[in-house]
Amino acid sequence: MQDQYLIFGLALATLLIAGVVLLVMRARVAAKKNSPDRSAFVEHHGGPPRPNRPGTEH
Asked: Where is the composition biased (Basic and acidic residues) (predicted)?
């Protein structure tokens, strides 16, 4: 019976540690960028598609 609590406790501790590491890494990246916003890749990608190059229309 005690093993069930141990396994549950270890699983919960693992998730908590992973969450803390995630938050710390995200804060470090935001501090290096001097901005908590999303990355420049996300901001500058995903717009409307470019027009086809001349001669490549189907």
From this structure: 34-46
Residue 32 pLDDT class (50, 70, 90 cuts): confident
- Rounded Cα distance between 52 and 43, Å, is 23
Round to whole Å and give the CA distance between 22 and 16: 10
Q: Determine the Cα angle at 20 with ends 19 and 24, to 5°.
A: 120
Confirm whether 45 is domain-assigned.
no
Could you tell me how many residues make up the chain?
58
Q: Does residue 25 lie in a domain region?
A: yes
Spatial contact of 36 and 30, defined as CB atoms under 8 Å apart = yes
